[in-house]
Design goal:
CATH topology of chain A: MetI-like fold
CATH architecture of chain A: Orthogonal Bundle
Oligomer: heterodimer
Number of domains of chain B: 1
CATH architecture of chain B: 3-Layer(aba) Sandwich
Order of helices and strands of chain B: EEEEEHEHHHEHEHEEHH
Distance between the termini of chain A: 46 Å
Radius of gyration of chain A: 20 Å
Largest sheet of chain B: 6 strands, mixed
CATH topology of chain B: Rossmann fold
Strand content of chain B: 15-25%
Number of strands of chain B: 10
Helix content of chain A: over 70%
CATH superfamily of chain A: MetI-like
Structural class of chain A: mainly alpha
Number of strands of chain A: 0
Chain lengths: 228, 218
């Protein structure tokens, strides 16, 4: 076991080509999916948190259900839609990073929406009353609300990124964990462990934990800033 | 300025029945009454924050209305940027801040201010431009005696200089006596008595108003 750990550190330090490729694919997928989820989720979260309209309650329930969607179910859904016999099979996206990104967007956008909605619900009435009292228009009120939520937006992004980078169920189903192509950190850990090759798995595990640690430290700092 | 009659209910539960009232231009009208009597609801409906049951604004459509909510809020900007949100030059903002004794906080983050300072900043944010009707919902609730006196002075001055009519919701009968020329007494969601402040606050017609004044030691 000690040898495997030593080898893992050696792989990290020497910059093993396969390890670097896995990291690059993971970074590409996680960054793309979390940024897209942020672009879609933040305005929707702001809207759901601040506006009161018919059907809002239904949308909130749908979003909360999607927040708890099991990744394998999401993976299965995309697999069926994009497999050769599926309705979108002609796009030939199965086992590509693009489809992994798409599946992750569906998984993590509800988290961003839910995160923003909870925060904005708390402050929106006060912001609205104060801004309307000044005679400010709808657009300016929306900008002020977004400005009030800026740390929360960062926090929601980091949560989305952390979920994306650690997700395994959906990406393994739609990506297929193809070496040098769609293999990401989580799928590679599973693959190498199944093969009995622990060192690369441990190396990836160390990196994944370090990323998670960094993300959580930044989130705590942001939350401290928010509570001040 | 005529305020039309309106009613307000929340989720089918009736909370306010306002029969209408004529505000004299350039006057301050104090709205007094116990907790839950409907004072803040009047302010919110007139400011357009909540809609009356008939969905109509009870004040004329062509007038400008400024509103300071009970809970003053500092936006995540500098104090001076907060004050200039609805217009006004930097010089005008600084003059107003100096008058309200918060000029030393101009470049500071507004979120860092105390409750009383935030309330003065929120007031400055409104007074930087002229309004036809200004609605203040307990603007001095978080202020000390000194800031309260200053606020009363500044608002009265603003009224005289701009001809703005002010609706001032307050819990303090002494404050109502100091600032108002007109007064409205609200009780259990209904207008109990309204008229000249001098009369209503010193020698009211209605027994309920008299009892309320006596209860508060006046």
């Amino acid at each position: 076991m000690q040898t495997a750990v030593e080898r893992a550190f050696q792989l990290i330090v020497t910059g093993n080509a396969e390890l670097v490729n896995i990291l690059l694919v993971t970074a590409r997928m996680s960054l793309c999916s979390s940024v897209i989820a942020l672009i879609i989720g933040v305005p929707l979260g702001l809207l759901l948190g601040s506006a009161r309209f018919k059907g809002r309650g239904v949308l909130l329930v749908i979003n909360r259900t999607l927040m708890g969607m099991p990744p394998v179910v999401c993976g299965l859904l995309f697999y069926m839609l994009f497999s050769g016999v599926g309705p979108f099979g002609r796009f030939k996206l199965l086992f590509t990073v693009q489809l992994m990104v798409l599946a992750q967007v569906v998984l993590i956008t509800p988290l961003v929406i839910g995160n923003m909605e909870t925060y904005v619900s708390d402050i929106s009435q006060t912001v609205r009353e104060n801004a309307r009292g000044l005679g400010l228009g709808r657009f300016k009120r929306f900008l002020l609300l977004a400005n009030e939520s800026v740390y929360q937006i960062f926090s929601a992004y980091l949560l989305a990124f952390a979920r994306a980078i650690a997700e395994v169920g959906a990406v393994s189903m739609v990506g297929g964990a193809i070496a040098w192509k769609t293999n990401v950190m989580t799928t590679a850990i599973m693959q190498y462990t199944n093969r009995g090759d622990f060192s690369l798995g441990i190396a990836l595990g160390i990196i994944l934990l370090s990323v998670s640690l960094i993300v959580n430290v930044v989130i705590s700092l942001l939350q401290r800033r928010l509570s001040r | 300025m005529k305020i039309s009659a309106f009613k307000k209910s929340y989720e089918g539960k009736w909370v306010l029945d306002f029969p209408g009232f004529e505000l004299k231009d350039g006057n301050i009208c104090a709205v007094i009454g116990s907790n839950g009597s409907g004072k803040s609801t009047i302010a919110k409906v007139l400011a357009g924050i909540v809609k009356a049951d008939n969905r109509r604004l009870p004040v004329p459509n062509d007038i400008s209305v400024g509103y300071m909510p009970q809970k003053s809020f500092a936006f995540r900007l500098s104090t001076i940027s907060n004050i200039r949100l609805s217009g006004g030059s930097e010089e005008e903002a600084l003059v107003l801040m100096k008058r309200l004794q918060i000029d030393h906080l101009a470049r500071k983050r507004a979120k860092k201010m105390s409750g009383g300072e935030t309330a003065r900043m929120a007031l400055a944010r409104l007074l930087i431009r002229p309004y036809d009707l200004l609605i203040l919902d307990e603007p001095t609730a978080s202020m000390d005696i000194e800031s309260t006196a200053l606020t009363e002075e500044v608002v009265s001055e603003y009224c005289r200089n701009t001809g703005c009519t002010v609706l001032w919701v307050t819990h303090s009968l002494q404050q109502a006596r100091r600032v108002a020329q007109q007064a409205i007494f609200m009780r259990n969601g209904c207008l109990c008595e309204a008229g000249e402040a001098e009369k209503l606050l010193f020698n009211p017609d209605k027994t309920e108003t008299r009892e309320f004044l006596e209860f508060y030691g006046i």
